[in-house]
Amino acid sequence: QVDLVESGGGLVQPGGSLRLSCAVSGRAFRQYNMAWFRQAPGKERQFVAAFRNNGATYYGDSVKGRFTISRDTAKNTVSLQMNALRPEDTALYFCAVDTDSGTISSRLRAEVAYDYWGQGTQVTVSS
């Protein structure tokens, strides 16, 4: 069983920045593939970013160049630094864990690859 809790969401003006954090309870944290997804009202859950166990990173097209995913193995956390935020970034952001280290890279963008999910943290971008 892996528990994960997101934090860091809030209200920010367009162009501003936020940093989300996800605390993960699993003892095999370094072996996990991690990801952030988001979901706005009336929209499907959308892939934001992933951090593979080997350190490779992947981003959704809408956030490339603005968001950065990172991992801190000493603290068992994964973070999402969000810069140049836009109103369309407004959503509930979820942290997710894939415990299968063998998942191929192309599948890391899919919800089905992930075994555990956090409760979400709200990000609202508005002036």
Describe the largest sheet.
Answer: 7 strands, mixed
Tally of helical segments: 0
Percent in helix: under 10%
User: Span between N and C termini?
Assistant: 40 Å
The H-and-E topology, N to C, reads as EEEEEEEEEEE
Which structural class do you get from the secondary structure elements? mainly beta
Task: Identify low-pLDDT runs.
Answer: none
Mean pLDDT: 96
Task: List descriptors.
4-stranded antiparallel β-sheet, mainly beta, 127 residues
Describe the structure.
By secondary structure, the chain is mainly beta. 0% of the residues lie in helices and 45% in strands. It has no helices and eleven strands. The strands form two sheets. Strands 2, 4, 5, 6, 9, 10 and 11 form a seven-stranded mixed β-sheet that branches. The chain has a four-stranded antiparallel β-sheet with strand order 1-3-8-7, with no helix packed on it. The termini are far apart.
Secondary structure: elements and pairs:
Elements: E1 4-7, E2 10-12, E3 18-24, E4 33-39, E5 46-51, E6 57-59, E7 67-72, E8 77-82, E9 91-98, E10 116-117, E11 121-125
Parallel strand pairs: 2-11
Antiparallel strand pairs: 1-3, 3-8, 4-5, 4-9, 5-6, 7-8, 9-10, 9-11
Can you give me a brief rundown of this structure?
The chain has 127 residues and is an all-beta fold.
